[in-house]
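Two quick folds needed for the group meeting slides. Do the first one here.
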Amino acid sequence: MEYSTFGRHVAVDTWGVAFDKLNNAEWLQSQLVEAAEASGACVLSVQSKQFEPQGATVLVLLSESPLSIHTYPEKGLPGFDCYTCGETVDPQVAIGYLVEGLQPEKAHAKKLIRGVGEITVAEAEMKTAALAAK
């Protein structure tokens, strides 16, 4: 069986997110797992770290690649990204799910097209799971 090397990698910075959301590794972990499942990805494992005095990192290992977030609650900034291989899982759905849950004042996203030659940078759409199902 031949596997596709095509992949999409969406990277996002959002601003103006509530401190309590960004400083709660357990809540973030549940959000990332739900986002991965909403996008159709297969979750293999999850690791998270709550930092002191604040901040958290969560990594969700997917069959299709990773979904991760690192937060700076004192600045209202989470940086997160999702990279998926193949064409069956859309990382923009996972990202859209996270943006909906975090409710930022601003969001900036880029999509990298990888695995087909030179990396191409494009504007990312933050799709919701409901839109993706249509």
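Then this one, please, same format:
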Amino acid sequence: MNISYALIIVFCISIIEGVGLTVLKSNIKYSIIIASIIYGILVIPVLNEALQFEGIGMVNFIWNIFSTLIMFMIGIYMFDEKIDNKQLIGVCLSLAGLFLILVPK
């Protein structure tokens, strides 16, 4: 089990997903097709690679946290979305959960 390599791979998946979702949110013509191609061609093979180093549950958990953080930042900085205190607390709790999962036993 090589969690650090899996973390890097899952982070790459989250970046790819972030790009796809940003394209989807933009007003680009055929954005659904572009986002689907980005997701299908890039995410699925990289996800398969991550699953070689860590279990599906751990990969999915880390992917969800990374994706949430990346999309949170994209929403704030690219789309001027506003967040409230509850949302910020939720993100902080997600980070705390990720930290607890990754702390060596």
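Slide caption for protein two: The chain has a mean pLDDT of 83.
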